[in-house]
Amino acid sequence: MRRLFAVVALLAGFLLVPTRSDAAVVNVAPWATATASYTSPWENVAAINDGVDPSRSNDLRNRRWGTWPQAGEQWALLTWPSAQTISSAQVYFFDDGGGVREPVSWRLQSWDGAAYADIPAAYPVTVDGYVTASFPAVTTTRLRIVLESGKAAVGLLEVKAFADTAAAQSGWNPPAALVTPLDEVWRHTESGDRDPYGFRNFGWDQIMANGGSINYCVRWDSPAPVSAELRDRIHAALGRSFGKWMNVMAGHDGWPYAEVPVKVVGWAVRDRATLQWDDDSVDVYVGDMRENAPQCAEPCGRFFNQSGAYPDCPGGASHHYDMSLWLTAGMDGGAGGDWGQRVGSEYLVDNLGSDDIHILLHEIGHGFGLDDFYDWTPTGQCCFLMKAGTATSITEFDAWMLRDLWRHLKSRYGY
């Protein structure tokens, strides 16, 4: 969709470059693909590694994996494209007090290339919190969580698998068939209207300035009411979508973060009554208008303060936002850039349960500098997310385009 960036002279801000470490034990579960022995039609196995920490075992706000009405031995499987060296795992059991209960027992299995083998460890069972299993490191491409049920079905809310990724970093090694089209894309980027080397407000810059995270503010340009539950589902969907791009960076070419947390710090609305909650979990901006739409406070926005200082932000720098999620009633398509993403409010709400909210994913790609492909196509490529209308998820070519941007820009962050 459309790409909108500020055409202004930018000041280089103070940059927080993360400290390198010889050890990098991180949760690699979000990098994996999740499958299962059985999934209830209304549940989603992708919930188990979406990076959302549950509030309790009967979490009603976020996605879950459950097997009702199937009982007995059930399993969920994490599969990685390359081997991971894992030394511990955490699981959070789904228990609704009725048809889905915590298991009688559980265990982990690793794939040895020919069969699954049990991993010896202590496997505690409890609800309303993570349980941890630690064991001598195993190297595998598949980790299976096997649950033994009682009379009820079983399920999981979240799984974390911890691996030492320090030795697992890969360099620039795209598939041979992608070398030429990737070079074409970069040459096209260099010849564009915006100098990629001089522009200093890409998503890369924002993440690095924060030390590995990103903040958002939601511009709710709709009269539809927003409950606390809907708010939290929107936050979770944004985090999952942003995380899909970050997952393809993890472990590649010196990228320093296994996960990039997304925090929504504020909402902007025309009328406070639209927001049907009274907690103080986010800042609320009422009646501040820009482009005839609610606007989060400009003194708190990085787009307006690219020096990285927020002296006039009411809550201070911790309440600043790097990007906006602008949700507009009745809008088709989308727009994206260093300022954030704009999509239809109805479109997003209707797709909160989808694994791939493809318009939002496409617009997030623009925030990192990925271009549109309306008038040309790289050699040998036909269908990929950034070529609007040809794919609905991040493809291998999209992933390597993002990695190529990092390859060309990482030196300015000391990598």
Provide keyphrases for this structure:
single chain; 415 residues; alpha/beta; eight-stranded antiparallel beta sheet; seven-stranded mixed beta sheet; 6 helices; 19 strands; 18% helix
Characterization of the model:
This protein is α/β, with parallel strands linked by helices. It has helices at 176-190, 203-210, 228-249, 345-350, 358-367, 396-409, and strands at 2-3, 25-27, 33-36, 65-66, 73-93, 105-111, 116-118, 131-148, 155-164, 214-221, 226-227, 262-269, 275-276, 283-286, 289-290, 293-294, 323-328, 334-337, 340-344. The protein contains six helices and 19 strands. Helix 1 (176-190) packs across helix 6 and helix 3 (228-249) crosses helix 5. The protein is globular, with a radius of gyration of 22 Å.
Q: Nutshell version of this structure?
A:
It contains 6 helices and 19 strands. With 415 residues, the chain is of the alpha/beta class.
Approximate strand percentage: 25-35%
The gyration radius over C-alpha positions equals 22 Å
Low-confidence stretches: 2-23
Q: Which bin fits the share of residues in helices?
A: 10-25%
Distance between the termini: 31 Å
What topology does this entry show?
Elements: E1 2-3, E2 25-27, E3 33-36, E4 65-66, E5 73-93, E6 105-111, E7 116-118, E8 131-148, E9 155-164, H1 176-190, H2 203-210, E10 214-221, E11 226-227, H3 228-249, E12 262-269, E13 275-276, E14 283-286, E15 289-290, E16 293-294, E17 323-328, E18 334-337, E19 340-344, H4 345-350, H5 358-367, H6 396-409
Parallel strand pairs: 1-18, 10-12, 10-17, 11-13, 12-14, 17-19
Antiparallel strand pairs: 2-9, 3-5, 4-9, 5-8, 5-9, 6-7, 6-8, 15-16, 18-19
